[in-house]
Amino acid sequence: MTEKSLTIKYKEYVNIDSLDKADKELMLRAIAATDGAYAPYSGFHVGAALRLADGSIVVGNNQENVAYPSGLCAERTALFAASAQRPDMRNYTALAIAGRNAAGELCEASPCGACRQVMLEYEQQQGHALRVLCLQRGGSVREVSSVADLMPFSFGM
Ligand code: THU
After folding, report:
1. CATH 3.40.140.10 fits 11-150, yes or no
2. Is 121 a catalytic residue?
3. Residue ranges per domain, the chain?
4. How far apart are CA 139 and CA 136, in angstroms?
5. pLDDT digits (tens, 9 = 90+) for 25-53
């Protein structure tokens, strides 16, 4: 038996204003996208904003359904919308994610496992890293420089 370990590096920004201009804009779009969430069951509104390689932004938000598994997270809504609408630009540089609770307060949004798997596939297909920025409770931002850091030992064929 050999015991091994993995470490990941990530960045923490004290607030949105500490981000560079483009990332701040992206996070503000993710926060704004929480308003478009359809989340009558959980009351948790998630917004995601995806930066395409041409600089444009596609947003998504969680879309729930009374048959719970039929709903979709904000991250996959954004990625699938971008992939569907801009197949010519299936090349992504950054994804910002923000959550808002039922009381209307901004709060932590960390992508679920299924979204990580989907994010990872687009990253692998494009052959360069997709950065992920997650708003944290209190307004700080966590950034990982690659989806691969969020999904070690992922499924693949
Ligand atoms: N949700 C997202 O949109 N993104 C995540 O990364 C985690 C969870 C949504 C799914 C559901 O509509 C609600 O948040 C509560 O789980």
Report:
1. yes
2. no
3. 11-150
4. 6
5. 999 999 999 999 999 999 999 999 999 99
